[in-house]
């Protein structure tokens, strides 16, 4: 899996690997392995990064080049209202 976009978006914001590692509650070497594609990024951490960067997981995974996050779905809004 090519995760170089993690490095690109992190560097665009002048954030260090150590800062991102702390945010994700992992070590800096572990975060580095995510960026290099050596280790798979757990979905909960991928989701957390997408929220942090205000983008979609698809953007981080190179499935789209659109940085904007997707709009919230009606299903999610209904579930939030019920809670």
Description:
It is a single chain. With 83 residues, this protein is mostly helical. The longest helix has 11 residues, at 43-53. It has helices at 4-12, 17-24, 28-36, 43-53, 57-60, 74-82. Helix 2 (17-24) packs across helix 3.
Task: Give a summary of the structure in a few sentences.
With 83 residues, this protein is mainly α.
CATH topology: 434 Repressor (Amino-terminal Domain)
- What is the level 1 CATH name? Mainly Alpha
From the helix content, strand content and strand pairing, which structural class follows? mainly alpha
Largest sheet: none
Strand content: under 5%
Order of helices and strands: HHHHHH
What global shape is seen?
A: globular
Number of domains: 1
- CATH-defined architecture: Orthogonal Bundle
Mean pLDDT across the residues is 83
**Number of E strands:** 0
Radius of gyration using CA atoms only: 14 Å
Instruction: Write out the CATH superfamily name.
Output: lambda repressor-like DNA-binding domains
Binned, the helix content reads 55-70%
The end-to-end distance, rounded to whole angstroms, is: 36 Å
Low-confidence stretches: none
Total count of helical runs of at least 4 residues: 6
């Amino acid at each position: 899996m090519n995760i170089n976009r993690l490095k690109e978006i992190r560097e665009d914001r002048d954030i260090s690997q150590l800062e991102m590692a702390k945010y994700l509650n992992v070590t800096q070497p572990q975060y580095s392995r995510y960026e290099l594609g050596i280790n798979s990024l757990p979905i909960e951490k991928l989701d957390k990064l997408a929220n942090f960067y205000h983008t979609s997981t698809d953007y981080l995974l190179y499935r789209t080049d659109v940085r904007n996050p997707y709009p919230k779905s009606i299903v999610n809004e209904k579930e939030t209202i019920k809670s």
